[in-house]
């Protein structure tokens, strides 16, 4: 059993008969008598759906032992995404729904953690961020305010919003859970000889 005070990002637990992974957690004081409440975003490991819950300090949960194994993304076939277990070479598939927004950011041969429960592949845990190159966007505006965004198409043909100062050819870091731009990747400066 796990108490509310033991909840942390990445923990897998059973709630109302379903298995969830915590992807976001925040603790708030709700008043002198109520104590600390914990707000979490949970990803259903089987379906990929994300829900939000608020827990009281007295709530308890069944933690679930999830086995994480390295898998390599091979290809997408319609709604199915095929992976290969790096140890057994067995090919397994999950649905686009199980991957959530992460499906938009898979690259061929990309290595991910596959989640197994009682030897059944339940889903895939994407890295929290991924680097992607912008292949097309409107011309950059150097003196634009930081909050003004514009559409940009990434190397995998996914469209996201990026700040006005970015140009085609630049690499950005994207949150795989939300699909949102996080920051520009600064290339190391080349030394002149």
TrEMBL record:
A GO term, aspect molecular function: translation elongation factor activity
Pathway linked to the protein: Protein biosynthesis; polypeptide chain elongation
Main location, first listed in the record: cytoplasm
UniProt KW Cytoplasm keyword: yes
InterPro entries: Elong-fact-P_C, NA-bd_OB-fold, Rib_uL2_dom2, Transl_elong_fac_P/YeiP, Transl_elong_KOW-like, Transl_elong_P/YeiP_cen, Transl_elongation_fac_P, Translation_prot_SH3-like_sf
Pfam families: EFP (PF01132), EFP_N (PF08207), Elong-fact-P_C (PF09285)
GO cellular component: cytosol
Subcellular locations according to the entry: Cytoplasm
Stretches that traverse the bilayer: none
UniProt record, GO biological process: peptide biosynthetic process
CDD domains: S1_EF-P_repeat_1 (cd04470)
Start and end residues of each Elongation factor P C-terminal domain: 130-184
Protein keywords: Cytoplasm, Elongation factor, Protein biosynthesis
Translation elongation factor P/YeiP central domain location: 68-122
Keyword Cytoplasm: yes
Role: Involved in peptide bond synthesis. Stimulates efficient translation and peptide-bond synthesis on native or reconstituted 70S ribosomes in vitro. Probably functions indirectly by altering the affinity of the ribosome for aminoacyl-tRNA, thus increasing their reactivity as acceptors for peptidyl transferase.
HAMAP family linked: EF_P
Similarity comment: family membership: Belongs to the elongation factor P family.
Name of the protein in its database record: Elongation factor P
Organism: Candidatus Desantisbacteria bacterium CG_4_10_14_0_8_um_filter_48_22
